[in-house]
Design goal:
Porin, LOR, 12-stranded antiparallel beta barrel, two-stranded antiparallel ribbon, disordered C terminus, 14 strands, mainly beta, Tubby-like_C, Protein LURP-one-related 5-like
């Protein structure tokens, strides 16, 4: 893969030599399945070393009522999270569950999986890209190391949002903020070709940057990005790539 898609070697050499725990994680998101078929509509996500970190392989762009499960995997194809639309939802609600290896072979029942979060748009208006993410009670308890005794068997959802998405995802200019204090957890921006000091050109919307702050679960943020792509109702145009 060329340096038009993932950060160049020069850019990586110029990066300061500090602990990855102290600086944001930078990813390049490519709206194309890693399966490599021309015109597929999945996701390939590369870290700042150019390695495949996450993927969503070749799913359908059918209307939400007919859409099936989206499976977020790591770079090796191990299932991480499954995403399913909530039928008959005015605010385009989606539910996220933990995924297991058998998710690749058969569709498990939601009752057999642990809910991670629910996500929906703040407004029923199609022109709005703003959304909220509510973690399940069990996930919120684990994240805060709480001993409140909330059980994992019931998909209770926290009343206050864990994350808020602000800005325009359709224009690849938005931020994911923590609901508790409003601090930035991640941001999405247009991707420029070349190094940061001398950008050559801005790439199409099919390639964009994702910056995740330290201490934030990257898989959860990537799942949010996948759902945002589905609820923002942006017309899909297959990317035609040249082999040259």
């Amino acid at each position: 893969m060329s340096n038009r898609i993932h950060p160049s070697d020069a850019a990586r050499r110029a990066a300061p030599d500090v602990s990855s725990d102290c600086r944001p994680a930078v990813y390049t998101v490519w709206k194309r399945s890693s399966m490599g078929f021309q015109g597929t509509d999945g996701f390939s996500v590369y870290d700042d070393a150019g390695s495949l970190a996450f993927r969503v392989d070749n799913y359908s762009r059918r209307r939400k009522l007919c859409a099936g499960e989206l499976l977020l995997m790591d770079g090796q194809g191990t299932p991480l999270l499954s995403l399913r639309p909530q039928l008959l939802s005015l605010h385009d609600r989606w539910n996220c569950y933990t995924a297991t290896e058998d998710a690749l072979e058969k569709k498990p029942s939601p009752t057999s999986q642990q809910q991670v979060f629910t996500m929906s748009k703040c407004s029923a208006l199609q022109s709005s890209d703003e959304a909220e993410v509510h973690m399940s009670a069990a996930s919120a308890a684990r994240a805060s190391s709480s001993s409140s005794g909330l059980g994992c068997k019931h998909p209770e959802v926290a009343s206050a949002p864990a994350y808020r998405i602000e800005g325009s995802f359709s224009r690849r200019s938005c931020k994911i903020r923590r609901g508790s204090d409003g601090k930035e957890a991640a941001r999405i921006a247009r991707k420029n070709a070349g190094v940061a000091s001398r950008p050559v050109a801005t790439l199409s919307d099919d390639v964009f940057s994702l910056v995740v702050r330290p201490g934030v679960d990257v898989a959860t943020i990537m799942a949010i990005v996948v759902v945002m792509d589905r609820i923002c109702h942006r017309p899909y145009t297959p990317m035609v790539c040249s082999s040259q």
